[in-house]
Specification:
By secondary structure, this protein is mainly beta. The protein is 6% helix and 42% strand.
C-alpha cells in the first residue's frame, strides 16, 4: 500500500531511526500501538508532524492491520521508505490524492466560456472552469474545484477536497477540513478555513491566509519570476493573525497590505 509518513528533522519517528530507501519489519501491526504507521491522504500527515521542522516521505506499507482511524492513518508490519517529498511535494501529493478519488467521467462539470460558472454539489466530483473572470464551485466531499482563467475563483466547501487556481489575480478558497487551497497565478490568493488544511500561494506576489491553527505556504519570486525563497508558517493567532493575508518580501513573512 502506498502511503505517506512524517518524521522529525533527523528522520526519526518515536525514536526509531529510519533511512531513505530503508526496509523495516516488526512482528505486530496494531493501530496506535505497534507496527509502522503512515497516512493514505498526504495532507493528514500534517496533523502528526507539523511543517516547521519535519520531513516527509512516500512509503510502502505491507501486511496492514485493516484497522480504521478517524483520518486516513494506517498501520503495517513492513515499511519501505521511498522518496523524500518536502512540504511542497507533500501538498502536491495531497492534491493528486484528492483528484484520484474523483469520478471525472460521471461527475464533472466543465466550462470554457469567459465570465461563466461551473458548479458541482455531489461528493467525489469536480467543477472545472478555464474561462477568464469565471468561477468553479464545489460543495461535495473529496471533490475538486479548478479554475485556470485570469481574475477567476475556485471555491470548495467539502472535506478532503482541493481548490486550485492557476490564473493571474485569482482566488482559491477552501473551507473543508483536511483540504488544500492552491494558487499558482501571479498576484493570486489562497485561503483555508477547515481543520488540518493548507493554503499555498506560489505565484509572483501571491498571498495566503487561514484560520488559527491552519498552515500557509508562501513563495517569493523576483521580477523575472524565479524563486527566491519559500516558507511555511502556522497561523498562530499571535505572530501570524487569522483571516489576514500574508506574503513574502525579502525572505520575510509580512502582511500583504504592508507589502
Amino acid at each position: 500500500m502506498r502511503a505517506y509518513k512524517g518524521f522529525d528533522k533527523d528522520l526519526k519517528c518515536r525514536d526509531f531511526q529510519f533511512e531513505i530507501g530503508g526496509e523495516y519489519e516488526e512482528p505486530d501491526a496494531d493501530l496506535c500501538n505497534a507496527g509502522f504507521h503512515a497516512c493514505e491522504n498526504p495532507l493528514d500527515v500534517f496533523g502528526y508532524y507539523p511543517p516547521a521542522d519535519s520531513r516527509y516521505c512516500e512509503v510502502e506499507l505491507d501486511e496492514t492491520s485493516g484497522q480504521k482511524s478517524d483520518d486516513s492513518k494506517v498501520c503495517g508490519k513492513k515499511i519501505k521508505v521511498g522518496l523524500e517529498l518536502g512540504i511542497k511535494g507533500l501538498v502536491e501529493a495531497g492534491v493528486r490524492f484528492i483528484f484520484e478519488k474523483i469520478d471525472w467521467k460521471n461527475a464533472k462539470e466543465f466550462n470554457t466560456v469567459n465570465r461563466s460558472a461551473a458548479t458541482s454539489t455531489g461528493n467525489q466530483s469536480a467543477a472545472t472552469n478555464t474561462g477568464n473572470q469565471s468561477a468553479a464551485t464545489n460543495t461535495g466531499d473529496r471533490s475538486a474545484a479548478t479554475s485556470t482563467g485570469d481574475w477567476s475563483a475556485a471555491t470548495n466547501t467539502g472535506d478532503w477536497s482541493a481548490a486550485t487556481n492557476t490564473g493571474d489575480r485569482s482566488a482559491a478558497t477552501n473551507t473543508g477540513n483536511q483540504s488544500a487551497a492552491t494558487n499558482t497565478g501571479d498576484y493570486g490568493a489562497a485561503t483555508v478555513e477547515g481543520e488540518d488544511s493548507v493554503a499555498i500561494a506560489t505565484g509572483y506576489k501571491g498571498k495566503a491566509r487561514g484560520k488559527t491553527g491552519r498552515w500557509i505556504g508562501l513563495i517569493e519570486r523576483d521580477d523575472d519570476g524565479k524563486i527566491v525563497f519559500g516558507k511555511m508558517v502556522c497561523v498562530d493567532g499571535v505572530k501570524i493573525k487569522e483571516d489576514t493575508f500574508y506574503t513574502l518580501r525579502n525572505k520575510r513573512v509580512v502582511k500583504a497590505d504592508d507589502e
